[in-house]
């Protein structure tokens, strides 16, 4: 039995057993293709549709290498997520893995961090969805929603209606069931990949090498600086691990989905970047909010294609909202089921097989946040939370290899602990580039979380009260 105290560790067997308890058991209904689509759905969003221009402005044509470098930085953490997800097929992602390796207090900290990362991300992405919806309406029909219902009060509006609508629609879909959500996401992933294929085909049909000289005007420093920005275009593969408990065959399918989604997105990112540079210069893209549309307009003379790209961006961001919000509900669900947050929120609706009460509560709170808070304020804390989770997951692999060497591991990170330590190094390096204000806000958030843990989580933890026996 695990030791009492704030660093008590959950036994892996008890984690799996609790997931099977009546009334708290999620429905295993998602296969490998749907899990992989969840990863692609979470990764490909505003990143490729927006950040490519910023990266090209910093690194020039060498932004191609920046995309590859950012992918390499992610792959080490992806391998660690794959091992833990296949070995501990329970909801909660990094929170659950930390509970089994580093103890309850650290698990609470990482869970509280993930609530910030996922919940705030959903609100921020929903706001971006509203902006892209307006861009699509303008490009396709020449109309746009008035500022009063399309922007937050600080940005000159009353409330952001499109952000509210998309969050509540996704909430309804997630309540209905994970298989329904996964099918809708699969359709949206197909649409946005088709839009990127359209762009790649048109770009290569009008391709020129003139924009590739000079290739690296800012040298190696420019490549790494752009990679630090582009890294965040890859965030999302970790959301696949939140579906561990609802995967039909988690041991086999989760490693494929986590690593496969990262590989698929990297291929699309590199091809899209090469194609964009083949028809437009970095200067033409760097100041545009829609660099791919700008490339088609200025480079290929296809202004009509801007509507297609805008539609692709709307669909892409919708699927990101879906998958990230799904991940948020499963992490919150796991923390409630362990008693660190109110257990009544972890009740599974017997009709739909989803934590409906929890999902609706989070959906309402996030929609209010998205309606009233400006995007810049919302996204400031997301990046550091993601990188912090990467550090803990990589360390978790190393710890669990030592504390539970005989535990079944359907997938094993090769050359451990070398590769997990490299993953830690990449994450720490990127965290060191973040501004001091971000660190201060992150510290305040964690202090608030420790206060809640001391007042509630510590006293109600099932591990400590004996409910975990």
Automatic annotation (TrEMBL):
InterPro entries: AA/rel_permease1. It comes from the Bacteria. Keywords: Membrane, Transmembrane, Transmembrane helix. It is found in: Membrane. The chain crosses the membrane at residues 35-52, 58-82, 157-175, 187-209, 215-235, 256-281, 301-327, 354-375, 381-401, 413-432, 438-456. It is a multi-pass membrane protein. This is Amino acid transporter. It comes from Actinoplanes couchii.
């Amino acid at each position: 039995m695990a030791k009492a105290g704030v660093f008590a560790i959950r036994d892996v067997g008890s984690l799996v057993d609790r997931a099977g308890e009546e009334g708290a058991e999620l429905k295993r209904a998602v296969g490998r293709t749907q899990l992989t689509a969840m990863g692609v759905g979470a990764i490909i969003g505003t990143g490729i549709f927006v950040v490519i221009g910023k990266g090209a402005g910093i690194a020039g044509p060498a932004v191609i290498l920046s995309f590859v470098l950012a992918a390499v930085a992610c792959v080490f953490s992806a391998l660690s997520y794959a091992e833990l997800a296949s070995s501990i097929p329970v909801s909660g992602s990094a929170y659950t893995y930390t509970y089994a390796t580093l103890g309850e207090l650290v698990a609470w900290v990482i869970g509280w961090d993930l609530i910030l990362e996922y919940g705030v991300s959903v609100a921020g992405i929903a706001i971006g969805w509203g902006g892209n919806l307006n861009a699509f309406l303008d490009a396709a029909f020449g109309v746009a929603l008035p500022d009063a219902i399309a922007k937050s009060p600080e940005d000159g509006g009353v409330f952001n209606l499109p952000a509210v609508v998309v969050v509540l629609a996704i909430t309804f879909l997630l309540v209905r069931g994970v298989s329904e959500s996964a099918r809708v996401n699969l359709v949206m992933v197909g649409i946005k990949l088709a839009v990127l294929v359209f762009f790649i085909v048109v770009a290569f049909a009008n391709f020129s090498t003139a924009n590739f000289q000079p290739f690296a005007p800012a040298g190696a420093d420019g490549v790494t600086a752009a990679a630090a920005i582009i890294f965040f275009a890859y965030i999302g593969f970790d959301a696949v691990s939140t579906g561990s408990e609802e995967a039909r065959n988690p041991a086999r399918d989760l490693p494929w989905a986590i690593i496969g989604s990262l590989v698929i997105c990297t291929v699309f990112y590199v091809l899209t970047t090469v194609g964009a540079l083949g028809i437009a210069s970095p200067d033409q893209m760097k100041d545009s909010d829609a660099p791919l549309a700008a490339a088609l307009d200025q480079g290929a003379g296809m202004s009509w294609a801007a509507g297609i790209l805008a539609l692709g961006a709307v669909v892409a961001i919708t699927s990101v909202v879906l998958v990230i919000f799904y991940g948020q509900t499963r992490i919150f669900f796991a923390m409630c089921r362990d008693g660190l947050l109110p257990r009544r929120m972890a009740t599974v609706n017997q009709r739909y097989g989803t934590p409906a009460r929890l999902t609706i509560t989070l959906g309402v709170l996030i929609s209010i946040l998205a309606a009233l808070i400006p995007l810049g304020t919302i996204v400031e804390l997301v990046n550091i939370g993601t990188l912090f989770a990467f550090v803990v997951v990589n360390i978790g692999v190393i710890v669990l290899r030592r504390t539970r060497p005989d535990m079944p591991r359907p997938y094993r990170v090769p050359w451990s602990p070398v590769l997990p330590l490299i993953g830690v190094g990449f994450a720490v390096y990127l965290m060191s580039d973040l501004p001091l204000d971000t660190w201060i806000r992150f510290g305040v958030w964690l202090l608030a979380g420790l206060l809640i843990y001391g007042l509630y989580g510590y006293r109600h933890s099932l591990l400590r009260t004996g409910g975990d026996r």
